[in-house]
Write the structure tokens for this entry.
Amino acid sequence: MILNIAVIGCGSIAKHRHLPEYAQNKQVNIAAVCDIVGERAEKAALQYDAKAYTDYKELLKNEKIDAVSVCLPNYLHAPVSIEALNAGVHVLCEKPMATSEEEADKMIEAAERNGKKLMIGHNQRFVASHQKAKELIESGAIGKIYSFRTAFGHGGPEGWSADGKNSWFFQKDKAFIGAMGDLGVHKADLIRYLLQDEFVEVGAFVETSAKENTDVDDNATLILKSEKGTIGTLAASWAYTAKEDNSTTIYGEKATLRLEDDPSYSLAAQYANGEVVKYELGAIQSNAEGGQTTTHVIDHFIESIQNDTTPLIDGEEGKKSLAIILGALESVETKKIYSLEKL
């Protein structure tokens, strides 16, 4: 069955990820696109032989759509996703899924009530090195996990977002959160996935030090503690100007895993007995030139609809990763370690 798809929001993430990956999927027909900037919608519509809209409500009313991608500023993720779900449409929503726990709950409830899929676009789970690392951890080859550090940073959204320095990413009323929401929530989701463990406490330091004329964070460092007692750090930054860092290190009883830390080997396992195993598993997805192949997010979303299976990152999973970032904001506000069990 061919699914009719619409993409709501035609900025960079839609242009570089969602639209081309839908176009590559033989089970998909891109029926409509929407953007409040008419020219942007028209350009995408022309490229993908779709109908252009500037009002998503009109799109949902007029088009026979099976599923949508919501690629909008963060503050619109929840309301637009809920409206689409209530219209009987499956939703793939960009991260962070919402700006509060209440919004996330409403999205999950709307998906359940309407019997539709809700997936959050956390692509790090699909990276080959991350999946291999999860296998090694689950097999017991690494032993007990003691600690970790994970980071995601680059020069900032102005380098690749559709509106450059004028992007909504830098406006708190639209973005709600800066580098922590743009990049940090990805790594929060990844480390939960790798360790198969939930975090119970978070402490955070957040600064706006690299960007001018913005009221959102551009540098954040979180300290996390899990249910199993694993502690580690998570850094998110728009101030890594020389080169993107998307690396993770897992420190275990029997080995250390280094992920996306070496340009030639996407995973290196350094064992306590001196043995080193290096894996060539292909490059991680990047916004850099030539860094796009497929994130597997779109294909997984389509498969979950076709096969009526639960997406790997459903609303509940998205909410748990969002909770870490919300907890970090509470920690900054109160200058105390925040208990995530309250969420």
Remarks:
- The mean pLDDT is 95.
- Residues 204 and 332 are 6 Å apart (CA to CA).
